[in-house]
């Protein structure tokens, strides 16, 4: 007879099993690093071991990781970070004086003059001040208070922290959070983890993934039957759909949030990634304040930015910030307490963020190289955005909206019924089946649209526009050939 431990569990049985673990964690899904990517890593290993494949390398166009796709870091950023990491280099004549000055300023603000010390939990004060000045310049002078800035471990950490502050209640009183479909799966994953209710509102593919208030209202009214909607999340420019919202649309969303008493979360990590003619980035903060005190003194909001995207692409440093607007001071004290439990965001990431918000100025020696490098990255992305749309739209059965901004395209793929049936037979959703075949046959790693959500009966994939131009052309050509072959096989 098996002996029992004092809590009634048989001795020797695991404490932590699939049945006893937190069920919310089991519900979490994150397609961007899902089964396709795991298989891609396995295939890379097989290639290294000499297994013969119809291709010689796996091209990973699944994740918005610019440096992993070969983008070079901005020289000034790395010079200052090198100086901060190893201050003996401050004696080295190879480094420009402005980089040294920045490094000294950052080090002076660090405990013990070292990047290795913990910082204040909300982030280093002079960096928060620099962030506030950056926001003011970006928003045409609308004031920003450094006390409302929280530095974070990438934007992800700040987004999850704010959701954690907002989610509460049980049953029909549970917090409902409105997210777009398609969405960036950090949101659905965080909502599953927190046990919040996901309220899906659909972007309109037919009009370039636009957002309209009628759809927001539909989703909200339906959700009111079973939860308490309290939060509206917007990603602009959009991931995975690459749209840039018009000023009018942002105004409508703000009006809707006020009417419906919703907390706004504006994810603006792609704020410099705008390529299409006639499109411009408008920050939610700026539009909110331009709408006058009736809105700017009432609507509660958090907006997010990161060092991971734009022209920097420095995902590995995990730098980011959020600005909170109209947050109840007592709640803000709770937020400050919550972030203090994790001590502080990575200090090297904070230092990098400082350089992003406070780049070299025209009278400084590093200015011209900085501007040249920044412009080159953004021009290259704009060209690749154009190329991607153009080539995909030549393929029968693929329809691609313009990539107005961000780093992704989310084309629609027409799949023959026989392919859909075959996928079902194998227990796969059809676009997963398609992407798996593409990976096995061509070595291209994309993410199936189902990982982001899509209208019932439609199929997509997400591809980044980050591979170097020549490689991107090869990828597009290979997808074209694969799509034609796949469609023929199942028609
Ligand atoms: C829309 C959006 N928000 C947030 C993030 C998180 O970025 P990070 O945590 O690296 O700042 C990403 C990353 O791809 C993203 O696409």
Oligomerization category of the chains in this entry: single chain
Count of the separate structural domains? 2
CATH architecture level-2 label of the largest domain: 3-Layer(aba) Sandwich
CATH superfamily of the largest domain, called what?
Type I PLP-dependent aspartate aminotransferase-like (Major domain)
User: With helices defined by DSSP (H or I, 4 residues minimum), what is the helix count?
Assistant: 17
Strand order of the largest sheet: 2-8-7-6-5-3-4
EC number: 2.6.1.2
Domain Aminotransferase class I/classII large: 80-479
Pfam families: Aminotran_1_2 (PF00155)
Organism: Kryptolebias marmoratus
Quick structural overview:
With 491 residues, the chain is α/β, with parallel strands linked by helices. The protein is built from 17 helices and 14 strands. It starts with 22 loop residues before the first helix and ends with a helix.
Description:
Keywords: Aminotransferase, Pyridoxal phosphate, Transferase. Belongs to the class-I pyridoxal-phosphate-dependent aminotransferase family. Alanine aminotransferase subfamily. Its cofactor is pyridoxal 5'-phosphate. With 491 residues, this protein is α/β, with parallel strands linked by helices. It has 2 domains: 23-63 and 378-490, Aspartate Aminotransferase, domain 1, CATH 3.90.1150.10; 103-357, Type I PLP-dependent aspartate aminotransferase-like (Major domain) (Aspartate Aminotransferase, domain 2, 3-Layer(aba) Sandwich). The chain contains 17 helices and 14 strands. It has helices spanning 23-27, 35-48, 75-85, 97-109, 125-138, 154-166, 186-194, 213-223, 247-259, 284-290, 293-296, 329-341, 347-357, 367-392, 417-425, 430-442, 469-490, and strands spanning 59-60, 149-153, 175-181, 197-202, 228-235, 263-267, 301-306, 319-325, 398-399, 408-409, 412-413, 444-445, 447-448, 461-464. Strands 2-8-7-6-5-3-4 form a 7-stranded mixed beta sheet, with helices on both faces. A 3-stranded antiparallel beta sheet has the order 10-14-13. 44% of the residues are buried. The model has no long low-confidence stretch (mean pLDDT 94). It binds pyridoxal-5'-phosphate.
